[in-house]
Design a protein that fits this description.
The longest helix is centred in the last third of the chain and has 24 residues, at 220-243. Strand 5 (98-101), helix 4 (105-116) and strand 6 form a beta-alpha-beta unit. Helix 1 (32-53) packs across helix 4 (105-116) and helix 5 (130-142) runs parallel beside helix 6. The radius of gyration is 17 Å and the shape is globular. It is an alpha/beta fold. It is built from 7 helices and 11 strands.
Length: 245
């Protein structure tokens, strides 16, 4: 049986088996109360993002970069800041994008609610299962699956890029495509990333930067600085857009 995932106007065919990132993990290792918490948390986050996201009026800039990547026969590696994950999840839904979620209790309900939006989930983090997760991402990209990184996640520091996306780009030849999702009016959560929660019915600008190609001979540190600079430039553009309202 095959699962068809929408990707940038075309379709990616993904085997729907237990090893697919789109297959939900079993919760047999958890007691009934933990399983209830996971299912409730996944449903709550999904409904919150779905309800608020459906009221947002989106504007876009630079979306042609995704078309350029696809026309060149490559698959994008999406890269963004952790504080934009709320609207980023909604805007890029149903494109078959695969992300890393932590091997923890929180990671269980996060994986479940993003899968409701059409994402795939690979389990791992910078502290646990990172190498295994990277290997799985390389395999996924070879099957044509797009990947995504919150570059300063999962614990920060805020707006300091980590090299995971660059390592994946080196191993696959696929470009990193930075983007920013900037709501005009929003609340901030008192968390390490100061997460942005958009106010219902606000406008939002989605800005996509130029793709960054990385070879095995390129310096990771130098490319990391380029990626950091690109994303911070997008942050600056977002601030100008808000002030120009």
């Amino acid at each position: 049986m095959l699962q068809i995932i929408l990707q940038l106007g075309s379709y990616v065919t993904v085997p729907a088996n237990d090893h697919s990132p789109y297959a939900r993990a079993e919760l047999d290792s958890y007691g009934w109360y933990k399983r209830l918490q996971i299912r409730f948390g996944a449903a709550l986050f999904y409904l919150t993002i779905r309800l608020i996201g459906s009221t947002i009026r989106f504007e876009t800039e630079g979306m042609e970069h995704f078309a350029e990547v696809q026309a060149a026969g490559h698959v994008p590696i999406y890269a963004f800041w952790h504080d934009r994950i709320f609207l980023g999840t909604y805007f890029f839904r149903d494109k078959g994008i695969v992300v890393i979620t932590s091997q923890s209790f929180d990671g269980e309900y996060i994986a479940r609610f993003i899968q409701k939006f059409g994402y795939g989930a690979i389990r791992g983090s910078s502290s646990r299962g990172g190498v295994k997760a990277l290997v799985e991402m390389v395999r996924g990209m070879r099957k044509g699956l797009p990947m995504a990184f919150t570059l300063d996640g999962p614990r920060g520091p805020r707006y300091e890029a980590k090299p995971g996306a660059i390592l994946l780009a080196q191993k696959t030849g696929n470009p990193i495509v930075p983007f920013l999702v900037q709501p005009r009016k929003f609340w901030r959560v008192r968390s390490w990333d100061r997460l942005q929660i958009p106010r219902p019915f606000t406008r939002c600008l989605v800005t996509v930067g130029k793709p960054i190609y990385v070879t095995v001979d390129d310096s990771v540190d130098t490319t990391l600085q380029e990626l950091q600079s690109s994303l911070m430039s997008l942050v600056g553009e977002g601030k100008k857009w808000i002030k120009g309202s």
